[in-house]
Amino acid sequence: MVTGLATLQSAIQELSRAYIAHTNTVLSGGASNPQELLALSNPLGQNGFSLPRMLNAPSPDGEAAKPKKQKRAHDPNAPKRPLTPYFLYMQAARSVIATDLGPRATPGEVSTEGTRRWSALPMEQKEVSKHARPAATIILSMVEMADHLARRL
Asked: Which residues contact 37 (CB under 8 A, 6 or more apart)?
């Protein structure tokens, strides 16, 4: 038991020294590549432990770490999606809420109060807001999207 604690204590001391050296290297700008920055010693590795894998290093079974997914390119000419029921509610209620709060109310306060009021609405009234959009608006947005996709091909 005492031997295990002594080993653990020396490993922690070595890890602390390596951390301080690493921090000094980063702060002084001495390292020129990420491999140098991650060149910490692994005091726990002697006892069967290992530090986490870094920089897409292959795993022990030979598989490389998963690469990051690339973001899908945004089409600036694509039509906007239709507004959600919350945004439709806020369009109608924003001026009423601003009047209720007074002339010194900031836009953030109006938005916070609108969110609170929306949360307090019963589900039936939220459903009414959901169907408040005219069907023509919904159909028009669907036609615009179909037209846009046809032009892209």
From this structure: 22, 25, 26, 31
Q: How far apart are CA 128 and CA 108, in angstroms?
A: 26
pLDDT tens profile 90-117:
888 899 999 999 999 999 999 999 999 9
Q: What is the pTM of this model?
A: 0.44
- CB-CB neighbours of 99 under 10 Å: 11
- Where are the chain's structural domains? 2-47, 85-152
Please tell me the number of Cα atoms within 13 Å of 16 on its side-chain side: 6
Angstrom distance (rounded) from CA 127 to CA 85: 8
Distance CA 61, CA 91 (A): 56
Other CB atoms closer than 10 Å to residue 89's CB: what's the count? Answer: 22
Spatial distance between the Cα atoms of 114 and 58, rounded to a whole number of angstroms = 51
CB atoms within 10 A of CB 43: 20
- Nearest in space to 49 (alpha carbons), one of 8, 77, 86, 18: 8
Residue 81: exposure state from Cβ atoms within 10 A (0-12, 13-18, ≥19) = exposed
Q: DSSP class of residue 84?
A: P
DSSP label at residue 66? P
